[in-house]
Design goal:
Order of helices and strands: HEEHHHHEHHEHEEH
Helix content: 55-70%
Radius of gyration: 33 Å
Shape: elongated
Strand content: 15-25%
Largest sheet: 4 strands, antiparallel
Strand order of the largest sheet: 4-3-6-5
Number of strands: 6
Number of helices: 9
Length: about 260
């Protein structure tokens, strides 16, 4: 009777320890904690925790353990190129975790976002955006011929654009490019746009890497800066990247590199 009681007690003690493992592969345990952490990682990436997911994770962990054991038995881990890959993977994981930890401890504040918003908004103050038409052709002679027709009131800009422009995105609209700041265009085009007044057509064709352009500025207006809520995600991401860049620079500056 005493022996039976002792055996029962031993079983009671052993059950919790066994319950901490989800499986064993050739004597190697796969802890419940490891499965939970795997599931947590997947959930952070958008998966939904469920019995089905946990079963899939369990089978994946079993498969990995089988394959890892086979690789170790075959001496794969001792190969130079494999050791290099393992070390690079380890470094990558550590660096990523370090940056994530730093951002977690140095979160972008609402005040930082507001300050950056005010700064960018101030930089855009007084700047204009332009409603532009253009005609794109392959050579200067053709551009000059078309420009002469426009200047001589022999043809409308829109009609010539529809008939002659090589820009598939605007030709059907009479060369219309819509509203945009000059910075949206390549430098020679942008310089021509900013030099023109409302209603003006360029005095001569403008050459870019795309060909020869005849440019007309139909209208101008001050740049309308978007409200803070609309650009908050972009500002927050920009500030996070700047925070990381500053942190990385400080680490490099403090390191003794010989």
């Amino acid at each position: 009777m005493k022996r039976i009681i002792l055996m029962a007690a031993a079983c009671v003690i052993a059950v919790p320890a066994f319950a901490q493992n989800v499986a064993t592969v050739n004597g190697k345990a796969i802890p419940q904690k490891s499965l939970d952490q795997f599931v947590k990682l997947l959930v952070s990436q958008g998966a939904t925790d469920s019995p089905q997911l946990r079963e899939q994770v369990k089978q994946e962990m079993i498969n990995r353990q089988v394959f890892v054991q086979a690789a170790e038995k075959a001496g794969i881990a001792k190969q130079d190129d494999v050791q290099t890959e393992l070390e690079l993977a380890r470094q990558g994981i550590l660096v990523r975790a370090l940056m994530a930890d730093y951002l977690q401890k140095h979160k972008v504040s609402d005040q930082q976002v507001q300050t950056e918003y005010n700064k960018v908004k101030q930089e855009q103050a007084g700047k204009l955006e332009y409603r532009v038409r253009h005609i794109l052709v392959a050579d200067e002679k053709t551009a000059n011929d078309l420009l002469a027709q426009i200047k001589g009131n022999k043809a409308k800009f829109e009609d010539l654009a529809k008939k002659n422009s090589k820009d598939p995105g605007s030709a059907d609209k009479g060369g219309e490019l819509g509203w945009a700041p000059a910075t949206n265009y390549v430098p020679p085009f942008a310089q021509a746009v900013t030099s023109l007044k409302k209603g003006d057509v360029s005095d001569k064709p403008v050459q870019t890497q795309y060909g020869w352009h005849i440019i007309q500025v139909e209208d101008t207006r001050p740049v309308e800066f978007p409200p803070l809520d609309q650009v908050r995600p972009q500002l927050e991401e920009m500030l996070r990247q700047q925070t990381l860049a500053d942190y990385q620079k400080s680490l490099r500056d403090q390191a003794k590199v010989q």
